[in-house]
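[step 3/7] inverse_fold.run input=structure_tokens len=272
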């Protein structure tokens, strides 16, 4: 297979992203330099690994799972089908955490997935330490591996429990902040998402029938684990700002909403 054949097969799957994906495929699954292939489009790429990766992509497996790693913030993460793929939209939450966390902060990351929020924050702020929680053993394994990969394993405690009902696991802990990008998508919206997103864990997407069960639960039941000036930082869906304002008010918090770089409401900041 040559470059042009690779591009035309990828175009069917990924449209305008086909050149970007082709570059990653060439870099990860062949012995050729991408720039060489660009100028020698007839060269036979000769790689069984490439063919197998392309077949997976044609089965609509996300590129990130095929490659097995992805960049988020300034770090690289192992990713597989047990965790949500870290999104650039979530980087704004890390930006805000870095700005708002006090010196030597101890924070909690609920629904940690790949661990990207906790780990990138820890990497960028050597004074901080954290607890990261997920309900699923295989997911938490990925987060633990990512902590080691990014050399912060000594500053993060992984915990396996159900955020919706087992908060007592944290008795005796107090945090400067609780960060979370919980599942927040309504089931009828999940139905409309791409085949690739549907290959990500359903439990990482489904936020209850109204999309807000995690926000309701976390604000109501985890504020007791916050220090006096502690705060919540949540990633939210572009249409959930009003829900978060209401949940904050019902629980005695002020709520400020920050937008992402696409000008969508993206982060809710709750303070007493
Ligand atoms: C939207 S993903 C976010 C992952 C990661 N924080 C990120 O930003 O990429 C939500 C995560 O919540 C986890 N999760 C789902 N239900 C949970 C529950 N009841 N308790 C704890 N974690 C849960 C999922 O396994 C998934 O890793």
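[step 3/7] decode complete -> sequence:
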């Amino acid at each position: 297979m040559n470059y042009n054949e690779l591009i035309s097969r990828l175009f069917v799957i990924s449209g305008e992203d086909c050149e970007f994906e082709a570059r990653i495929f060439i870099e990860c699954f062949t012995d050729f330099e991408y720039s060489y292939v660009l100028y020698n489009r007839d060269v036979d790429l000769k790689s069984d690994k490439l063919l197998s990766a392309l077949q997976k992509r044609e089965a609509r497996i996300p590129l990130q799972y095929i490659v097995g790693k992805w960049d988020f913030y300034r770090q690289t993460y192992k990713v597989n089908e047990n965790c949500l793929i870290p999104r650039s939209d979530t980087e704004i939450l890390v930006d805000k955490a870095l700005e708002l966390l006090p010196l030597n902060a101890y924070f909690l990351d609920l629904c940690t997935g790949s661990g990207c929020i906790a780990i990138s924050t820890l990497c960028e702020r050597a004074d901080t330490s954290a607890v990261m929680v997920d309900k699923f053993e295989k997911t938490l394994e990925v987060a633990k591996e990512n902590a080691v990969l990014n050399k912060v394993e000594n500053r993060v405690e992984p915990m396996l429990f159900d955020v919706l009902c087992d908060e007592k696991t944290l008795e005796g802990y107090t945090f400067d902040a609780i960060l979370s990008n919980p599942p927040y998508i309504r089931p009828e919206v999940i139905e409309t998402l791409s085949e690739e997103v549907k290959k990500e864990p359903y439990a990482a997407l489904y936020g209850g029938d109204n999309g807000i069960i995690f926000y309701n639960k976390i604000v109501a039941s985890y504020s007791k684990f916050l220090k006096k000036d502690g705060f919540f930082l949540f990633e939210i869906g572009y249409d959930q700002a009003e829900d978060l304002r209401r949940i904050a008010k019902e629980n005695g918090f002020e709520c400020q909403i920050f937008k992402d770089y696409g000008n969508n409401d993206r982060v809710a900041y709750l303070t007493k």
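[step 4/7] annotate
The chain has two domains: 3-59, 74-271.
The mean pLDDT is 97.
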